[in-house]
Amino acid sequence: MNRNEERWMKNVREVTPYVPGEQPQKSKMIKLNTNENPYPPCPGVRDILDHVNAADFRLYPDPDAKALVQALARYHGVSEESVFVGVGSDDVLSMAFLTFFASDQPVLFPDITYSFYPVWAKVYQIPYRCPKLDENFQIVTEDYCQDEKIGGIVLANPNAPTSRSMPVKEIQKILEAHPEVVVIVDEAYVDFGGETALPLVDQYSNLLVVRTYSKSRSMAGIRIGYAIGNPKLMDCLRGVKESVNSYTMNQLSIPLGVASLEDEDYFQKQVRTIVETREKAKEELTNRGFQVLDSHTNFLFVKHEKKCAEEIFHELRQRDIFVRFFKKERISDYLRITVGTDEEMLTLYRALDEIL
Ligand SMILES: *Cc1c(COP(=O)(O)O)cnc(C)c1O
Q: Cβ atoms within 10 A of the Cβ of 211, count?
């Protein structure tokens, strides 16, 4: 830093950002590194695009994204006042951190979880503490039920990158222990076999459940996420959101998000396919010397008995097969592998047979 930069830098907010998995722009690659869905969204999504009139783009979108909010309310059997939508669940979670974690007590989330949580805490200057997952990478419920002053709780269930899930009755214990703070449950992967906390929303007014279109709905590129919770919570969330950006949901994302909800058969079938491929992959990887954690997500968290994760990661990368490696305490022996198509997984196994 030169002298002039030093003068103004002390008045600037400087944060270390979240680092998303790489998005290599290659035509021929196997991309198993950011938990995207290998299948396209339902045909109804395609149909909407066939009827887009670019002239409509001159107008602002509906600031309330009402059509999408209504469709989500209907889909989940909740009131419209209980639904909040955003630009992917990252946007929803970021707004929720800003809205609900306004105390000077620490917010709790596990030491190993979605690595965006500490980044939002830092950028919004929210104190936080990270209870350790146990040696099987499970959340220890008691750590979140202590009689202590805290500012809130965030849990991903199923958790990433561990792929493990916790029973909702454990979350209920946490809600009982801490009625004085908001508890956020990030259900990005719940459709692949987790247990949803949504039925608890009526009973616990401090519970916020967050969902995304990016994984099970194959629409990461369109950026839709949402939250469901008590209407009072949602009022607060909307108050903050409307103080930051009125028009979060763009004109196309609204009908595309509605269309995805209208084809339940397609959705269920595709999720089932991924779960089947995942279970097959678990077997194939186990046969190749990997220890594979039980997964309720669209990815597997694996550790090889002999070869180190970073080496496997690089050797796969040389073959244009991208998986995720985290150079972090406690998990640097592991790889996170997204479940792709059956064909992609076969290519992965063949590559592993060469490497190992
Ligand atoms: C992928 C993911 C998200 C973010 O999803 P977007 O809706 O694409 O922003 C949030 N939480 C977890 C745990 C995730 O894995």
A: 26
* Ligand 1 nearest-atom number relative to CA 35: 1
Helix or strand or coil: residue 260?
A: helix
Chain segment 168-215, per-residue pLDDT in tens: 999 999 999 999 999 999 999 999 999 999 999 999 999 999 999 999
Which ligand 1 atom is nearest residue 34's CA?
1
pTM of the model: 0.96
DSSP string, 279-290: HHHHHHHHHTTE
- Lining residues, ligand 1, CB within 6 Å: 35, 88-90, 114, 156, 160, 186, 188, 212, 214, 220, 225
Residues 6+ apart with CB under 8 A from 325: 309, 310, 313, 332, 334, 335, 336
Residue having the nearest C-alpha atom to atom 1 of ligand 1: 188
Q: What are phi and psi of 194, to 5 degrees?
A: -80, 175
For 100-123, the pLDDT digits (tens) are: 999 999 999 999 999 999 999 999
